[in-house]
Structures are given as structure tokens and as C-alpha cells.
Amino acid sequence: MKDPYALLLEHIGRNINLGPAEEELVTGLFRERSLKPKQFLFQEGEILKSQVFVTSGCLRSYAIDHNGFEHILQFAPEGWWIADMQSLLDQVPGKLNIDAIQASTLLQIGMSDMERLYREIPQLERHFRLLLERSVVTYQNRLLDNLSLSARERYEHFCRAYPTLIRELPQKQVASYIGVTPEFLSRMLRQPASRKG
Amino acid sequence: MKDPYALLLEHIGRNINLGPAEEELVTGLFRERSLKPKQFLFQEGEILKSQVFVTSGCLRSYAIDHNGFEHILQFAPEGWWIADMQSLLDQVPGKLNIDAIQASTLLQIGMSDMERLYREIPQLERHFRLLLERSVVTYQNRLLDNLSLSARERYEHFCRAYPTLIRELPQKQVASYIGVTPEFLSRMLRQPASRKG
DNA sequence: GGCGGGAAATGACCTAGATCAAGTCTGCCG
DNA sequence: CGGCAGACTTGATCTAGGTCATTTCCCGCC
User: Fold this and answer.
1) d(Cα B196, Cα B108) in Å, to the nearest integer?
2) Stretch A21-32: mean pLDDT, rounded?
3) How many C-beta atoms lie closer than 10 Å to residue B74's C-beta?
4) Which domain holds residue A89?
5) Disulfide-capable partner of A113 in A29, B92, B102, B129 (CB 3.0 to 4.6 Å)?
6) What angle do CA A122, A27, A52 make, to 5 degrees?
């Protein structure tokens, strides 16, 4: 079992270099927490108060539409951040739910402490800028996939993007992520992906 | 006709405060450029070399799928940034096309100059972090819309999100943005949006 | 070792939206 | 003014994927 704080510092260290004092400041402000499978971190209508970094296990965020269907926006395995950003940034009731799909541990930091970190370690702005750039690219690609690919192609992309996850996820969650019904995904997987060209 | 550089500084000024020397540094590194309607800024397969800030008119970015259909990722009217971020960040051949849908003017800065700006004005990291946060939220919402809403609902959202743009855009581009065929959008608009509940 | 509940499979049927193929309408360029 | 290329419309038909209901499977739990 790896030290969660070490994981966080390593993660940050990929983009910027922190001195020992800075590392201490960072680790001093994050608090550990663990979640059991299916336990909620955040529910629709609440106001999200903290940034969350996953140190083990896996969380997911999803929205529920007006027919009661779940649409998964993000999986967050070890080493990822997860949030309802709209709620967090504007301190407004969120539209997402976030829960653990496995027993998980995470590090949490309140918004005012986060702002303090930005003030005292301006380099962190850079770290998160770089993360967010990747995040935008990822969402753009996923959006284009949804606009231009068939369900089967989206499934294949998913398998390539999350080769580990796919083996531990219930099929219905994959369905919900790629945007098809569980029934349809089930049928699709039974069908022998037509050879082409 | 507003000064394009003033527009850029005003834009940045919404997030951070620059001193006169910093403002001069910024404006000194951006170069003006203009595009005629339909003129390309960037085409699939090229490697994007610069950040682009739109100062008048409107650009769009879109991908072409394996059936030859366009899918519009973004419209960038005055005051917005536009790029093929994947290409720009990784200096890799891009999958997007970017062109002007109206006569447009823009400010451009090469990547090395941009890095210099980040070095000399670290606050800019913050500015772009804040922009990118908004951008992620926007893409998340659009993705959820695509996963959970009908074509008509997506159209309505679009009208609310871009009330000005909708009046000057050809219908087929709206169709391409919301992810339906032009034929279907045409029919849909002819149908009197069923009253419900 | 039986049982309760969620996950998956499966069958029959349905529909939003796509496709293809003609038209028409419009604006702009020579 | 004439013509022609794009944008929009319209009709007929098709299909990927959805819906609903039933059954089976599997796994954790008492």
C-alpha cells in the first residue's frame, strides 16, 4: 500500500518541481478519506466544497436525465482528480453524482485551502493549467467520438482507453459511458464484429 | 472598429491584473491577421504553431469523419480562443480544420513566445487555468447534452447558448454542431414543437 | 445450501433520426 | 440580366439503437 501523499506529490512532480517546504505545505492541507463501494462522495443538488484526488480504487461521476437514466461523465481511478466542476467553481447546486465503484481512498482539500496553495505556490497554477489542457483535449475527443462514431466503434475506443478498467466494470456502466442502453451493448457484444475491408 | 490589442488585454484583465510593462510585453508578441470568409486557418494533417485569439468575426473548428461528414466542435466569435489543442500541445498532425465563417481578424502568438510569456508573467498561468476550467465545464455539459437529450432539446440549448450566432449561421452548420443531419433539422423546425405537460 | 437481488441475455416490437433522391429557392458573380 | 452553386425543403424508405417484458445467471449473504 503506497503512501497516498507520496502519490499526490509524484503526480504534481510530473509538471513542476516543489521544494521540501512546499511539499510539506501541500501535504499538510490535504486530508485522507476512504469510501466503501457504492458510497457517495457527492450528490446532485449539493454544493461541492473540495477538490478530490483519488489515491486508490475508483470513483465515477454521472448525471441522471429526466427519464431516470444515468450517464457517466468520468471514471477516476488512482491518480486522477474528480469533481462536479460547475458546482465547485460557482458554489452552486451540482447536477452530478459522484460515488465509489470500488473501495477507494482519496485526498481532499477545501476551496479556501486550495486558494491558499495557489497563492503560496504560484507554480501550481501551471500544474493545473497543464492538467486542464489534457482534460479539454480528452473531452473534445470524446465529444467527436459521440458525434461521428457508431456504438461499436465507441466501445472499441473505450477498451483501448481503459484496458484495465474494462475488466472490472459491470457492462451496464460501460454502456452508460459510451451512451447506449445495457441491452444494446449486450446484444452488440454477442455479435461477431463484422470484418470489413 | 475596436483595437484588437485592447480587446485582448481587456479579456486577460478579467482574470488578472497586468502592469503597463507586462501589457506591452503581451501586445508586443501577438501579431494581427485577418481571414476572409471560408479561408482556412488550419487544416487536418498540419501541425498547429500558434495560439489564436479572435478579435472580430467568427471562426469554427470541425472534424471530418470517415464518411466525409463535418462535425463542428467549436464556434469562436470575438473574444474567444480557438485551436486544435492536441496538435498544438503535442506538435502532432491535427485532426481538426479551422476556418472563418465570416470575415474575421485575430491575434496570433507562436508557441515559443507563449512560453516566454508564461515565464515572464506567471500570472498568465492563472488566467489560462481559469479559462480552461470554464472550457472543461462547457464540454462536459455539451457531452451530457449529447448523451441525454433529443435533437430538439439540443437545438433549444444551442439557441439559448448562442442567441446571436444562430441568426447568422446557415442551418446546416447548426445541424453539424448539435449532431443531426441538415435534412432532419429542416424537418424538425417545420414541426411545431409539441406542447407537453 | 437456499434465497434474494442486481447483472446480463434474449425476444418482439418501436421510433428518432439517417439516407437517398428529387426538387426549389436564393444570392451572388460575371 | 442570366446562370449556377449552395442552402433548404420534401418525400419515400431504411436502420441503429431504444423500449419493455421475461428469463436466466451469478454472487454475496443468512
Assistant:
1) 48
2) 97
3) 21
4) 4-122
5) A29
6) 85
Q: Are A153 and A52 contacting, i.e. CB atoms less than 8 angstroms apart?
A: no
pLDDT tens readout for residues A43-84 = 999 999 999 999 999 999 999 999 999 999 999 999 999 999
* Residue B22 belongs to a domain: yes
Distance CA B144, CA A71 (A): 7
Distance of CA B139 to the CA centre of its chain: 12
Inside any domain, residue A35:
yes
Does residue B94 fall inside a structural domain? yes
- The sheet with strand A31-35 has its strands ordered as A31-35, A104-110, A50-56, A81-82
Question: Residue A56 maps to which CATH number?
Answer: 2.60.120.10
Digitized pLDDT (tens) for each residue of chain B, 197 residues in all:
579 999 999 999 999 999 999 999 999 999 999 999 999 999 999 999 999 999 999 999 999 999 999 999 999 999 999 999 999 999 999 999 999 999 999 999 999 999 999 999 999 999 999 999 999 999 999 999 999 999 999 999 999 999 999 999 999 999 999 999 999 999 999 886 764 43
Q: Angle at Cα B68 formed by Cα B63 and Cα B73, nearest 5°? A: 20
A137 contacts in B (CB within 8 Å)? 85-86, 89
How many separate domains does chain A show? 1
Distance CA B61, CA B73 (A): 6
